[in-house]
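ok new one. same drill as before - structure tokens go in, u give me an amino acid for every spot. 244 of them this time. try not to just spam alanines like last time pls lmao
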């Protein structure tokens, strides 16, 4: 029997075992994710694929007039650097640390080789890519149909799941980029949630006070996104299970 992967909070890495994990183990590097730490820049070569364990990495589009719009975030449910895994060595987006934490990174060249091998790693990457497309579609619908407070609750719940702690650093600037609104508007929505006793916000740090109430206040999109990720990772084919 092969060696099992060590405990990891990353959904992809924790599912690897046996020969799949052994091939990657010499190349896996434990790293920290810092606030605003650049992971890769638009148009530049992607050197590494990142697997967050406790932090959150933000993907943004920088428009010609300098406006920065967040298009997605990735935490312990997946990876950052999908273009490189599919053989595209540059990205049309910028990726950087939004919430500090830990991650494991892997050379983009090694990740591409492993994906092309067609084993369990390749299947998990495809499952994550499918879940990502579904989540983007859900986000578009959410941004169009639901209130700012509902969307803020959704994002806070997802962040809480990813970080694994009740308190995490988050500035109003990041929150405004994520929600696509101005900082004063974010401040009003955050104040309403704080007065309701759902969260506490002090000096760039948010603490989840009442998780159950936060779930009741959010829109349907939070549960839809969780369901989609669970469905995407629900099972592996038997031919991979036999190798673990």
């Amino acid at each position: 029997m092969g060696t099992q992967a060590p405990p990891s909070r990353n959904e992809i890495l924790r599912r690897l075992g046996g020969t799949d994990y052994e091939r990657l183990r010499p190349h896996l590097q434990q790293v920290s994710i810092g606030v605003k730490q650049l992971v890769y820049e638009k148009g530049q070569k992607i050197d590494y694929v990142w697997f967050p364990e406790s932090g959150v990495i933000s993907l943004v589009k920088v428009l010609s007039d300098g406006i920065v719009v967040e298009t997605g975030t990735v935490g312990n449910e997946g990876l950052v650097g999908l273009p490189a895994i599919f053989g595209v060595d540059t990205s049309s987006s910028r990726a950087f640390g939004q919430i500090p934490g830990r991650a494991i990174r892997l050379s983009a060249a090694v990740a591409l080789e492993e994906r092309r091998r067609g084993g369990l790693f390749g299947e998990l990457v495809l499952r994550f890519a499918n879940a990502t497309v579904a989540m983007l579609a859900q986000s578009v619908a959410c941004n169009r149909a639901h209130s700012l407070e509902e969307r803020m609750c959704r994002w806070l719940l997802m962040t809480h799941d990813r970080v694994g702690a009740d308190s995490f650093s988050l500035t109003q600037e990041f929150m405004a980029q994520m929600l696509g609104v101005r900082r004063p508007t974010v401040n009003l929505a955050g104040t309403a949630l704080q007065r309701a006793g759902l969260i506490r916000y002090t000096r760039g740090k948010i603490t989840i006070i009442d998780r159950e109430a936060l779930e009741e206040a959010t829109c349907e999109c939070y549960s839809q996104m969780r369901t989609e990720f669970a469905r995407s990772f629900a099972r592996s084919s038997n031919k991979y299970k036999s190798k673990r």
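Strands lie at 29-33, 38-40, 48-52, 56-62, 68-74, 94-99, 101-107, 167-169, 199-202, 205-208. and btw The radius of gyration is 18 Å.
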